[in-house]
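Quality-control log, excerpt.
Job 1 of 2 completed; input and output follow.
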Amino acid sequence: MITASPTNRLANRLATICQTFFRPTLFVLIIVQLVSCGSDADRTDKPANTAEVDDLFPVKSSIDYAQGFSLTYHDTYKLIQIYSPFETSSDTATYVLLPRGQAKPPGYTDGQIIEIPIQRLVTMSSMHLGLLGFLQAEDILIGMGDLKYVSSPKILNRIKEEKIVAVGRDQMLNEELLVAMHPGLIMAMGSPVSKIGQYHGLREAGIPVMVNSEWLETSPLARAEWVKLMAALLNKEAEVNTRFGAVAKEYHRLSALAKGPIDRPSVLCGLHSRDTWYVPDGDSYMYQYIRDAGGSYHWAHIKATGSLPLSFEQVYPVGLKADFWINVGSGNIENRSDLLAKDGRYADFKAFQRDRVYAFTKRVNDRGANDYWESGAVNPQVILADLIKILHPEVLPDHELFYYKPIQ
């Protein structure tokens, strides 16, 4: 047997009264009102404002390797936070990426607002050109700190057409020109030398400045993943997810192949210059390349931030035994004679004697720009393939060196 609720019993009694004393129409109104209201226990109250905000970003990117920034999504805006952008600072820089026409979200009083997708960009580093090229977005670039060191054919063509102008850098930054250009964003290079304070006037003029400090990342894939930051600025998450996913997959495939060889030849990096030999430390992305390519490295156990400054005498014993010697200069070393002109003691190195000396200068153009620092930054799988070809040519017999070349 079903027991009627207190609300239903009250409705039945009122129905009887209404049939006796009121017109049928009034009776119907009372019953409808009673049933629609019910008791507090029989209904679920909804807030007065029931409007639901649509998610403006159905396609999202996740940050899986990079440690220097985070990307989070909210219904009407994206949030980027860049950690310790100048290495020695513990501050976090916050950027609110807001679609045009959307109201600014509450809070974030210290965060810079960037309207997306950005349509006019000024960059301060050639590495940023690699990010644009990866996403085929070169057309948004209108200014650079310096126009000299450019490898991208598309960017060079835009410079030739005077669609990109030099804006200066550091103490020579042309603020008046930048204010007149009014870019949607200035992407600065994060370094202790390039302080964010120098852009204070531009921020006051309503021009957002974003610090890109990818160079502080300690792995090749982490450095390359900063392309997702650029994609978030351009609303190109779908494209970057597909393309970067393919890069990461290929990098891991190649790394797994290089784990097969039993021998792990020793590798020496860099060149002595101005009384100092800077070598990668064990926390550097360059060491990660060597390790993933199947090589061993003398300073792998030293964990630090940045390169290790050593004397020639400290490196010399390692050079005598190293099987391979890579990264010997940035374009001014073309042959063995050039090396010996720098220091005759290089002739004592095992790698020199066995013609195992390499530089990442195969793609240096006549302007002195090195594509290793542009497209190479977002294609670590190609650099890794080069290094595997150098250290273990039998693993990739069909690969042709792309960024590296032998010094003969």
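Job 2 of 2 completed; input and output follow.
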Amino acid sequence: MTEKRLKHPSKKMNLGIKIFLIITVVMVLCTVCTAFVWSQYKAPQIMGAEVPADASDNTIESITRKWFEEWSDGHEGWKVPPSYRLKDTEIINLDSLEDGYIEVHYRARISWWSQKAVQNLELISTDSRNVYEGQWVLKWQEEDGLWKITEVLSPVQYQIQSPEFQEEINKPQTDHFSYDSSKKEAPFVKDGVLYVTYDGGMNFIEVPDGYEQVLKTPNGTYNEYLPDGSCLVTSSLTAFAGFSGGKTKLIYSTDEGKSWQESIIYEGGYYANTFLSKTDNFCYVTFAVDRTGGSDYYGSFRSSDLTGWESVSLPDPLFSNASCVCWTDDNTGYYAGSSDSYYMTKDAGKSYEMYSLPHDNDIIASLGYNPYDCMESIYQEEGITYMVVGQGDDGDYARNGTLLKALFKSEDGIHFSFVNEIEDKTSEAG
């Protein structure tokens, strides 16, 4: 009988190990090789890319298509790292713009493991899985037989830098307010001109350069709202606080606008809420003299001849964000800020006392809160002092769609009683 010889199992195992090792080595070498190739990869440039000029077809569209084909090829194939790899691309639309600009809208397909390419290439997702879109605005310039990309923008960036957009955003945006015809003597603004009237609007007199100096805000816009107490319009004195050339000045007339003068009040100053008062012997002007951390800090000045100005002591050296300042006589002044209290002086500013704003118990009982927490104006009529208290910037208490204010009166200028609610006549005009 012939004896069969069996193969030794260790030989099969050794062969398997050898094969495994060979495969492993090959994989490692492939990985190293691929990593090396990927490390040498340079994404096709956009900015500065060049395309030879073709006399037979030299349009911006054809040049862009030639460049895009090269750009796309540079993002396809195994030599491209997955973080930049695209499976295929196509142009959806080309839109030629002015001055050598062209908008490119394209579609790109990627593999699921190439998701980082979405971020690197700034692609936009679509409803289809692994299908994305991209957009550029390119500017081409021809020089020495070559077309070259000299600008790469997003469509939004292109729109922002366009002359039409710049013209629009640089155009001062103005809040227009209707004229209060109930007042015989009042300011009036129309078509970029500041006027005053002394006969209820029958005739208007221009304030020279008043629109620019009085109404222009630091951001280049104009605020045409001149609330009570922000200027003086009377037959004996018409005055506005103006800001120009880094100075604060009084623009005034003492003959009903027949002639106008300017008087420098302060070397400095900032546009903000401004307050003017006229007593028997003085003209008072209060305005922002400093601005820090979003707050305006105020100074008060007075003059007996509208030429020389002296500083007036404030209730607080850092009195800020004023909502109302009014002097009812040479010794009595009221200062209110963004709180439900105010200061009052009876000795020309040598000392001040703080008072709570007046309120009406019936209104509070009816609403469950007090809507009136911001003093807006003080004025006198026939020996009676009146105070108007509004709702501040966040007020929303209205009747028939019109915001309301509270009117109070006082015989001694200290103790105020409720008169009635009045409508806010401030209204924007188109």
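Post-run check on job 2. The chain is about 20% helix and 40% strand.
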